[in-house]
C-alpha cells in the first residue's frame, strides 16, 4: 500500500500528526517502537503544563495560542478531560528575563495576566514563601494537560478515522527511492509513502545522525501535599525561578500528591540503558530540596518519582524542518523539555506542510540552518 503520510514515532507530536492527517482524509500509517502511550519517551508522568505568555520567547506565542484552540477542540469533540484551566503562577526575581519575557509577550499579544509584588502575592497565595525581591505573574487562562490521556485519545481517534497502526516496530532507515517516494525500512518490513514525518523524540539521531541533539535523563517527583495545595480549592500550576536561576515547575495537588520537577540539570546520556529508573542516583531525591527549603515549604515527604528524557537542542529551542535535501521527509526535534503543549499545533503544521499548504506561522526561528554557523 502507498500511504499519503507515514508517521515515525507516535508519541506527543506523532500522535497529533496522525490524528490531524486522518481527520483530513489522508491515508496514514503510524509507527512506534512500543504501544503509545508508554513510558519509553518524554510524554509519561500524567501531566504537562501549558503556558501562553511564553517566558522562552514571544515567537512561541502564536503557536501556543493555536495549540490551546486545538486542545480545546479535542476535549470538546471527544468529551475526554484533557485540559484543566487552573491558571499558571510564575514566580521569579524582579529582574528575571524569563518573567519579563512573560510580561512582554502578554503585552504584545494582549493576553490576560495579573502582576503582583511579593507582598501582594504572599497574601493571595500564602502557601508560598516569596522573598521581597521577587514578584509573581498569573496567567489566568493557562493550566495543564493530561499528557498520556491526550496521546491515547489522539491514537484512538486516528484509528477510528482510518489510520493504520504498526506498533512495537523498530524503524531501521528512512529514505527516498528514485521516484521520490519515502521508504521506511523496519524489522517488520518496508513501508512506502508519499511523505513522512520523523517525530521519534529522544533517540532521533538513530535516524538522523548529524542532528545537534543531546539526550538528557530527567526525573520528576510526587510529594505528599496538604489540602491547601489542592486543585479543588483553586491552587494553580506554577513555575518558580530561584535567585540562582534554577527553574522549577509544579502542578496543583490531586489525591493528596503534588508533582514537582526541575527544568535544568539531569544527566547527559548516549544510549537507552543509561536512562536509569528514578532513585538510581542520590540526586534524584534531593534535586527539589532548594525549592522546598525556600519558596515552597508547605510540601510533605517524597512519595515517588519517575525518570524520563529530553531531546535537548543547543539553544533549547525547537527544530522543525525538512530533512536536508528531502522535501517530503519532515522532522521535529529539540523540544528540550517544553514541547508537549505544542504537540497539537505541530501536528497540524506537519500535515499542512505535507499537503504543500501555506502556513499561518513563521517557522524560521526553528529551522535547522540556524546552527550552520
From TrEMBL:
Molecular function per GO: flavin adenine dinucleotide binding; sarcosine oxidase activity
CC cofactor: FAD
Domain FAD dependent oxidoreductase: 4-351
Pfam families: DAO
Keywords: FAD, Flavoprotein, Oxidoreductase
One Gene Ontology term, aspect cellular component: cytosol
NCBIfam families reported in the protein's UniProt record: PRK11259.1
Descriptive protein name: Glycine/D-amino acid oxidase (Deaminating)
Source species of the chain: Leuconostoc mesenteroides subsp. mesenteroides (strain ATCC 8293 / DSM 20343 / BCRC 11652 / CCM 1803 / JCM 6124 / NCDO 523 / NBRC 100496 / NCIMB 8023 / NCTC 12954 / NRRL B-1118 / 37Y)
